[in-house]
Amino acid sequence: MAKVRLENVSKVYGDVVAVRDIDLEIDHNEFVVLVGPSGCGKSTTLRMIAGLEEISGGSIHIGDRVVNDEPPRMRNVAMVFQNYALYPHMSVRENLAFGLTLARVPRREIDLKVAEAADILGLDELLDRQPAQLSGGERQRVAMGRAIVRHPDVFLFDEPLSNLDAQLRTQMRTEIKRLHRKVKTTVVYVTHDQVEAMTLADRVVIMRAGKVEQIGTPDNIFHYPANAFVAKFIGSPPMNMFDAVVAETTDGKVLRVDSDWQLPVPRHLATRVEAGHEVVIGLRADDITPRGHGMPPREGAVFESAVNIVEPLGSETLLFVNFGPSETIAKMVRPRTVQEGETLSFDVNLEELKLFDRSSGQAIERTRA
Amino acid sequence: MSGLSHRRGVSRLLGRLELVVIWVVTAVALAPFLWLMVTAFKHRTDVMSPTPKILFSPTLSNFHEAFVIGPFTTNLINSLVTASASTLLCLVLGLPAAYAFSRFRVYGEKHVFFYVLTTRMAPGIALVLPLYMFFQSIGLLGTLTAVTVAQTTFNLALVVYLMRNFFNDIPRELDEAALTEGAGEWQVFTRIILPLARPGIAVTAMISFLFAWNEFLFAFMLGGTGAQTLPAAFPGLVTPHGTYWGQLAAASVVVSIPVLIMIWFIQRHLTRGLTFGAVK
Amino acid sequence: MTRKTPWGGWQWLVPMMAFLLIIELWPFLVMLDQSVHYLSYTQPGKNGQFIGLDNYRKAVFDDDLFHGVSVTLLYMLIALPVEFVAGLALAVLISYHMTLKRIVMPLLLIPMVLAPVVVGLVARLNLNPDFGLLGIMLRELGIAPEGLLGTPFNAFLTIVAVDVWQWTPFVTMIFLAAIIGMPREPYEAAVVDGASRWHMFRRITLPMLQPIIGVVLLLRLTDAFKVFDQVFIMTGGGPGAATELLTIFAYKVNFAYWNLGYGSAVVALLFFISFVMTFTVMKLVNRMSRGKA
Ligand SMILES: Nc1ncnc2c1ncn2[C@@H]1O[C@H](COP(=O)(O)OP(=O)(O)OP(=O)(O)O)[C@@H](O)[C@H]1O
Ligand SMILES: [Mg+2]
After folding, report:
1. For all residues of chain A together, what is the average pLDDT?
2. Best mutation target, B169, B180, B187, B198, to test chain A (most A CBs within 10 A)
3. What is the pTM of this model?
4. Is the CB of A42 inside a 6 Å radius of any atom of ligand 1?
5. Of A334, B114, B209, C194, which shows the fewest CB atoms inside 10 Å?
6. Which ipTM value was assigned to this complex?
7. Closest-approach residue (CA) in chain B for C192
8. Rounded distance, CA B81 to CA A233, Å?
9. Coil, strand, or helix at residue C141?
């Protein structure tokens, strides 16, 4: 249980800048997830917090200490690795106890703590097995058990679920969340899976190319992406994006995608853009729905298109349809059979339309209602 | 590989031919040594027989002469002591170094490595003359210590290279896990790395033992008569009056037995061991 | 990937470096010091006198030393190519008969792990013209009735042959390991294309072996240069000086003639030669394998 603070932290390998001037404050018991595409510097950031990687600039605080020059063992953090890094020559029990024996905790106390951790994670049956005799999910749990027995100030996870199959991953995800509720600790969790990030995090840190793109609650990030990159990265299917230019017409401002395809500028953005502004329109599939499915939006636009591809996902169905010169994904929530080639009309929920400045990629902030 | 070896037709015959070649080569490689082994069990008259004797009445008299009447038992013990002690010393000195080379960015790593390597590439005589003068000056010439220390010099490089290679096979995450769990580097070394490298250490120790066990020049020059190892005793039986073939053959058998047993154990690792880890 | 540590990790090297400095570097320096002084049993009165580079000057013009260099060079020039070609051929042959590998390889490796003195003895016993297995056979065929170690030319060829006998399996072992470790796909593709075995060997096996060839070369070169024990037992450098390798010459100067001052200079030169040779070959090998990568 401790605050973690990164100030201007950066990491340089030769002439590769892996992490560039990151600022991040993590509160007591907060669950923060670092997410971003491969190679964006998530692991590096995490390893710098753990002390496994020297920092090239800035400073890292854990609690009220500056830990820049402290070796990992002084930091009282625990790390769960992608391949679990269980000690192959020790039984599960010895794996769990290792950190405590290093700290010269008395034998009886170790036994108690190991039993407690085993109980929390349901490892009792496995205590006398060797790591080689465990399944992937069991190894994963042992790795977490090894972290919790020590009651560290900070938990660090580096893609702990990525070696599990899809079903187990979902299950373990929930288990991690439950664990966090039970064992209140500060957690920094790295993943490149945005669903994991959204479901687990109190706050999500989205990184790209060594830099932080946005920090915020899952809700916040989903609904108010700070830029086109975040908007596209978070959410599934990815947000539909179209280049457009703002134009002034007799009906007011419109977003002109091409000469005969345009959308009205929604009210919440009307005062933010001027004619001639080159923008990117962002629309989630959720906001493009076939007529008659759900409530028509309060502020909307309608278009018609043939359905090119149908992708049923069970509870919802994705429809690939033409949107002016490009293709877009629409979502149909209530199941209904749709034939490929069928023509439907679609509602566009303008209230959720995002606009991004095309040159900077930054979101154009909406006016408060 | 075997699957792509043969197409039909011509290759039938060719394949047979190849087998014959392989077996002949193997026979050529083995026969002379076997002949020596057999000689060890022959009576003197059979050894010197002008028509090679395959059938003979075996005897242990050569072993008796060499090890019971002769001094070879002392030599044997000397061999055991120096080879074991030098192997142990090599491990004590070499394992921490190998760990550092495997895990850390060591200042001047390349230079140290090259320096260590010189002990392996330099001819024995280039090491033995300085050592001879050194031990003479400190009065240790002709002692087991001198031989042990000398044998350590040429095996140290092997231990460092080979163990670094074995350590490199242990995933770094294990160190890192231990480090975050509160271990210092020494604890990582003793509690994670060494236990996990046990098979590698065994292989390295065996190879190092073998080299020391087989070694002649250092033992011969530095051991004198006081600390003569088994190989170093060989020239003593090649006298102006003749060569004691029977005893030499018996000694050869004794020298070779541990060698043969060990290579049986480390077969799989022999390539790696004898190429300093360059080929696995 | 390596991590940083205080003192650049040198605290871990202290025991080893201390050992090497005391046991190796220091005596070596003492020997160098000796090499610029007079020390011999022929003129004890002059012992300890500083004579500068006289010993080295003498060495450079020493016909016997030059002879040693020639013998060593010739030894390597004949033995190594034979071992390479024969070793490679054998490796390829065995790779066609992998079922045999497990039986044949351990047997083949025996000569290579034998003590050099045993190797020397094996040779002497088998080549003995009166009762040696090979010696008798050769005598019956009318070849070298005085024994193979009896004449200078034969003796030299014999020590080379013994080297080939002992070390060809080593070359085989490494090449075989490399061949086994090769990816199957290129071969399978070649089989589909109907390539002959010779073609596969030339176009696939040989190119893929290239980086390994350098390693084997380096190891064999340094080892062949170092050869001493078995030749010492077999011939002691004779007859005459026919098998007097550089190492044996250096041994004799010091420990047969006890010419320790001059001997130190010879040993220093010997060390220098091996150093330069190893360094050069290592550079070449590195370039070779980097060129491949
Ligand atoms: N030891 C290193 N030397 C040089 N560059 C490195 C090193 N470690 C990482 N990098 C580089 O730093 C950048 C960030 O790496 P990092 O491992 O933090 O990425 P990541 O976000 O964890 O990616 P992934 O999702 O693939 O694990 C990458 O471009 C990587 O190539
Ligand atoms: Mg990573």
Report:
1. 90
2. B180
3. 0.87
4. yes
5. C194
6. 0.88
7. B4
8. 68
9. coil
